[in-house]
Specification:
heterotetramer; A mainly alpha (103); B mainly alpha (398); C mainly alpha (167); D alpha+beta (198); B: 398 residues; 15 helices; 1% strand; D: 198 residues; 6 strands; 17% strand
């Protein structure tokens, strides 16, 4: 069994990768993908802390991760619907080009 | 004696693994499982292609293949040789890496799904506590493979086929999973062997306690079959590869061995989903009548599997293909409400299990059946036979 | 166990990096799916079977497919490959590296670093379900409500504006 | 029962099941002809590809074709190629030296038959013309095209009888005309016919 900090470092790395992508990529879908990656990194942390925690039989980490997955699914659905709506309006999915408030 | 025969493969594997040093056993056991699954089901694939072609022929008053070998039994061999010796063509504009990976991404998840299916008493590779969820989770991987195949070919027909395929698979996954959830609700477990165990025994000593003999089980099984047909892209839901419209859908630009892999994946998916249907509704490897319980369990499973395959071939030989809008309407407006009602009926069935008065079973059956039948009639009337929605009338064509 | 962790970690990180760095959007999505599968493997390794399968079902089976559909509907799949080597881009990477450094330093500095796992607990689906139905029934209902709202919201957002005649 | 939703599906399934079972013990249901082993009898009006008719035993001398080239001109895909025979002095004879038809081009339209004033070209019913040689074997020569009149009678009896009757009538009329001419000639002696020849 690898030590806890291995999981924490992996999670931090995933979070940083997701953050870098969300900050640098211009495509709206990729920004969303970066956010999904960050959420997943958080999930990994939940599970790792649950497994290495004092009372794993309480299942808190697992349950929290499941709720988080559910919320991520909702977020992805709404986010992608927004991207499609934006595309219909502006005919582009590049976030830099969608900077006007007027339609 | 019969006990040994029933557990033949389990004992055989235990003996083979026992012959090897302890360090190897951890690796050897799953390797043997995987090898057995691939060998048996690839063989079944070969047999099924022949049976399907023969059966379809007979359903349409034709002979079917009968040229290679006696009665054409060597036809799969000829087909295989032809596939393997064909030129492997990759379009110049294709994304070569994704194009190459797509068939692999198609077959691997389906083979993984076999790991949790119980083929006989104790004959299951891995007994996950959440086996059913595992099955559906890996099954989801094939959708991505369809997209990979369709997009990487750089062909508008293949992209259209892939979009149709993904839309269809997502839509029909909902009724598929929900009809399985009804079983989970009653059996109280996600593990497939314990779902089979929950169907053990016989009512009054002769009627098997399979879920298909309950009102929600019968409806659930039919809904499951329809959704499974759509999931495995078979006729009448074969729109993704409807050859008269989009040639072969996402398979257009595949030839030779890669095409054979897709073909194999399609059939393996069909077997897997049939095996799941058997496990959930038809009592898995259990014998249908108590006096035949001495027949080895895997033979019962095989017989049921062949029966399911025959049913799919029969459906394919009978039904015409749906239109895309009909397909989507059917999934979302007809099957989804029905499967939700079915879930409620299953919950009622489970809740009234404690009823003990005389005729309680018949009352429950009639109640559940009536609710389902009323829903079915109302839905089909509202969707198909209500004024303005009935069969199309042709003013000038007649 | 250790080897499995490192292999899975390599797959996950490679998938994530590729998902964020490849020029073609479709490749990004496919690599994202690989990263998700790697994460599911980690969950399995940690003994959270149910979460692992749910992860594959939701992320590979739903989110990745949703992304694919969004890509096809916005015609981004055929967009020319776009690399990001610009000043704001570098700035973003710098910020991310900084964040990673902070997190790593915190992890290394905390007392948790060397903690070993207690014996594996028995996690049955039944236990999970009982928790969800007893202690966590309110959050469960809220998530259900949220998902329904998200479903309806997504449909309304993506619905074509017929009344306006489309813009 | 008839109006129960889903009834039509069951009816269809029943129908195919009846096909399935019936095809095993009612051979009449099977619509398949196992081709290389058994063949459908060729219909009299079937046509595939032209042939040249000759009378008598010698395909060279008995050929009805006079090389008028009408068929060559009328053939829509232009698959007929005719070169006329010449004698030693180079004079054109009323016989084709070459008469080639390209099978791969012919479209079985029968126009050559309809325009032929001499009933020399007719449609064959042979359909197994495939060959491994794409360039040589699909070009049929005069020798391969020439078929005796008996063969034509066997293939298209009705049509052949009609043609034979017409030809016999024409021959009779011609003989009668010749006899008349002969009678005229004998009545009024003139230069004998053979004297025009050198």
């Amino acid at each position: 069994m690898p030590p806890l900090h291995a999981y924490l470092l992996l999670s931090a790395a995933l979070f940083a990768i997701g953050l870098a992508g969300a900050l640098t990529r211009r495509h709206a879908i990729l920004v969303l993908v970066g956010i999904e990656l960050m959420l997943n990194a958080a999930n990994l942390n939940f599970i790792a802390f649950w497994r290495y925690g004092a009372r794993p039989e309480a299942l808190t980490g697992v349950l929290f991760a499941m709720f988080s997955i559910g919320i991520a699914a909702a977020e992805a659905a709404v986010g992608l619907a927004l991207i499609i709506a934006v595309y219909r309006h502006f005919r582009t999915t590049t976030v830099n080009d969608v900077n006007e408030l007027r339609g | 004696m019969m006990e040994t025969l029933d557990q033949l493969f389990v004992l055989l594997k235990r003996w083979v693994v026992g012959e090897f040093p302890a360090a190897w056993r951890l690796w050897l056991s799953p390797l043997i499982d995987a090898g057995a699954i691939i060998g048996v089901f690839a063989g079944l694939f070969a047999v099924t292609t022949l049976l399907e072609r023969k059966g379809l022929g007979r359903l349409q008053n034709r002979m079917g293949p009968n040229r290679v070998g006696p009665f054409g039994v060597l036809q799969p061999l000829a087909d295989g040789l032809k596939m393997l010796t064909k030129e492997d063509i990759v379009p110049r504009a294709a994304d070569r890496v994704v194009h190459f990976l797509a068939p692999i991404a198609m077959v691997t998840p389906i083979l993984l799904a076999y790991a949790v299916l119980p083929f006989g008493r104790n004959l299951v590779a891995v007994d996950f506590d959440a086996g059913l969820l595992f099955f559906f989770a890996v099954g989801a991987g094939t959708e991505l493979a369809v997209f990979m195949a369709g997009w990487s070919s750089r062909n508008k027909y293949s992209l259209l086929g892939a979009m149709r395929g993904i839309a269809q698979m997502i839509s029909y996954e909902v009724p598929l999973v929900l009809s399985a959830v009804a079983v989970v609700l009653v059996a109280g477990s996600l593990s497939l062997p314990s779902i089979v165990d929950s169907q053990a025994g016989y009512h009054w000593g002769w009627l098997a306690r399979w879920h298909v003999f309950t009102p929600w089980g019968l409806a659930g099984f039919i809904l499951f079959l329809i959704a499974a047909t759509a999931e495995s892209n078979r006729s009448p839901f074969d729109l993704p590869e409807g050859e008269s419209e989009i040639i072969a859908g996402h398979l257009i630009e595949y030839s030779g061995f890669k095409y054979a892999l897709f073909f194999l994946g399609e059939y393996l998916g069909l077997f897997a989903v049939s095996a799941l249907g058997i496990t959930l509704f038809l009592g898995g490897w259990q014998a249908p009548v108590p006096f035949l319980a001495w027949v080895p369990s895997y033979l019962w499973f095989g017989a049921k599997l062949l029966g399911c395959i025959a049913l799919f071939i029969w459906l394919r030989g009978t039904m015409p293909r749906l239109r895309t809008d009909q397909l989507m309407n059917f999934a979302w407006k007809f099957m989804l409400p029905l499967v939700l009602v079915n879930l409620v009926v299953a919950a009622l069935w489970h809740g009234t299990a404690a009823w003990g008065f005389f005729g309680a079973g018949a009352t429950r059956w009639l109640l559940g059946g009536a609710v389902l039948w009323l829903t079915y009639s109302a839905l089909s009337h509202a969707l198909f036979t209500a004024p303005g929605r009935g069969p199309r009338t042709y003013r000038y064509a007649d | 166990m250790e080897t499995a962790f490192y292999v899975l970690a390599a797959v996950t990180v490679a998938g994530a990096v590729a998902a964020m760095a490849l020029p073609r959007l479709v490749h990004c999505t496919l690599c994202l799916a690989v990263a998700f599968v790697g994460l599911a493997g980690h969950f399995l390794l940690l003994g959270a079977e149910f979460v692992s399968f749910a992860q594959v079902l939701v992320y590979v089976g739903a989110v990745a497919i949703l992304v694919v559909f969004a890509m096809l509907l916005t015609r981004s799949a055929d967009a020319p490959p776009a690399w990001v080597v610009s000043r704001p881009g570098l700035l973003g990477v710098g910020v991310a590296v900084l964040v990673f450094g902070c997190l790593a330093a915190t992890v290394a500095g905390s007392g948790l670093a060397g903690r070993e796992a207690p014996p594996a607990p028995e996690v049955t689906v039944k236990a999970l379900g009982e928790r969800l139905m007893a202690e966590y029934v309110v959050p469960l209902e809220v998530v259900g409500l949220l998902l329904t709202a998200a479903l309806i919201g997504a449909v309304i957002l993506a619905l074509e504006d017929r009344a306006k005649g489309g813009t | 029962m008839k109006h129960t939703p889903g009834w039509g599906l069951l009816k269809g399934l029943f129908e195919t099941a009846r096909n399935f079972v019936g095809s095993y013990y009612q051979p009449g249901r099977l619509t398949t002809i196992e081709y290389p082993d058994e063949r459908l009898p060729v219909q009299e009006n079937f046509r595939n590809f032209p042939m040249l008719i000759y009378d008598g035993a010698d395909p060279e001398r008995g050929l009805r074709c006079v090389g008028c080239k009408i068929c060559e001109k009328e053939c829509p895909p232009q698959c007929i190629y005719i070169v006329l025979e010449r004698d030693r002095s180079g004079k054109v004879q009323k016989r084709p030296r070459l008469f080639d038809i390209d099978v791969s081009v012919c479209m079985s339209c029968q126009i050559c038959v309809e325009v032929c004033p001499f009933d020399a070209i007719k449609m064959n019913t042979e359909y197994e013309l495939s060959t491994g040689d794409r360039f040589g074997a699909l070009l049929l020569r005069k020798a391969e095209l020439a078929k005796p009149n008996e063969y034509y009678r066997r293939l298209h009896p009705t049509e052949a009888a009609e043609v034979d009757a017409r030809l016999a009538a024409a021959a009779q009329a011609k003989a009668a005309a010749q006899a008349k001419e002969q009678a005229k000639l004998t009545a009024k002696p003139a230069k004998p016919a053979w004297s025009t020849q050198p």
